[in-house]
Amino acid sequence: MHKVITLLIAITLLLQPLFIYAQINNAGFEGGIHKNEMDNKDTKKYKEVIFLTGEPILLEGTVEMDIDDDTLEYEYELTNSDGTVTLEREIELERIIEEDSKQRQVVEVNNITDYDEEITITDGDEETIYTLVDYQFHNSTIDDKQPVIDFYKGDWLGTKTYSINENEGQVTVEITGNIYGYGQYWGATETQKIHKDINYSFDTDDSSIEWYGYADIDVSFNRTKEMEYFKNLPYQTSFRDGYTLTEQEETIMKYSYNLPVINNGEVEEQIRNQGEGVERFETLPTRKKLYIPRYQDIKGHWAEWDIKRLAGLKVVDGSVKFYGPGLHTKRIDFAKWIVKAMNLIEEEQVERSYVKPEAKPEFFKDIPREHPDYDYIRAIKEKGIMNGVGDNKFLPEGNLTRAQAITIVIRTLGLERLAPNLPFNTRFKDDQDIPLWAKKAIYVADQIGLAEGTPEGYIYPNEYMTKAEAAAFLNRFITYLQENLKKDYRENILNF
């Protein structure tokens, strides 16, 4: 499975943001899947299906990966269930990476530089050996870095030519592949769609066999963080319930094939060997209990569970007695909540950031370096999530409107392009009240289910958002990152 480059912006203490390359999935370009135990081991369990013989053969074993800035190296050791088929493969590719920091994009090109592959099939006392004698390959991926998500798209072309028992025959496999993926704090999904055209020819003194077949392989890697509710059963306890944060990785391989039927050395012209299969790897979920808030003013409130989820994640301060669900949301509060919910900076970075105050510029006139929330505002500004108002001021204590909140979240996702060109009308009855600068964001938020409006059909864009509404809105945002994107990048593409 391809170790696709995703572009991450590191908000460092004293430096401007740097481009760091982190790959989502990393088992090569062969159409197989690996089990990622969420550790740093270079060797992973691996599965792959080959079709060279005219029959699908499932192989399992290991892939060892060596990844650095300039090369990708893979070493496979695989066998089928009864040990009659073995595969040994070593592949090396060069990496050429070009970045455009202004557009926050990265282009990577991978070319084959070395290869060695041999497949041995044992049938009684006879052995058939497929040796890779030529491998042409080219891959390119574009990574578009949005404030909290990396979206990427790649494709590749390849031709593998095998010699059968040295000079007795030949198999040529033409490969085309496409990659669709994203990576962000709450989840990552990469889906590959691969097509293989197989041409086989084998000559002996007595006969000659030629056939054509093809296979389609869909592979999807997924990592998801989810919050699960738990109830505390004892009556005499300081808390009655809470949330658990779970993280799990899953890889699925779905394949179909159309191959010849061979009887007594002859290819049947009228019938074909067709079928499909599914293989998968799942990791054991990691689990972490979330903090229990102490609020005394949210019990029975319609947003109680939204607030508890954010408090458990320490997005909002759960150590105080009162949350104030009916109070207006301040700009500084929403900025901090976005940064914390998306893990844009680490808490220890905030604590260490006071070491050299002179090294950090003021981003807004009303946010001096000594401001207690300076690092959050800096992160939100550097990511392009929130801008100033008026004469380069942030107005941290200013109230946040619904239109502003929706615009911030859609800008965070980088999905403004989903809206049509202005002028247009949204479906909301108070469309005439939507500020022009918020029109596209509100349209997109409605389309993807983040802002549905009231049952009567109003969005009330210019009303101030309460803290309860903000909690519910941020939880919908998190759920979208956990679930909705995965459906678009896996279920919709693979027709699951």
From TrEMBL:
InterPro entries: Cell_Envelope_Struct_Comp, SLH_dom
Segments forming domain SLH: 290-352, 360-423, 425-488
Domain of life: Bacteria
Pfam families reported for this sequence: SLH (PF00395)
PANTHER family xrefs: OUTER MEMBRANE PROTEIN ALPHA-RELATED (PTHR43308), S-LAYER PROTEIN _ PEPTIDOGLYCAN ENDO-BETA-N-ACETYLGLUCOSAMINIDASE (PTHR43308:SF5)
Protein name according to UniProt: S-layer protein
Organism the protein comes from: Thermohalobacter berrensis
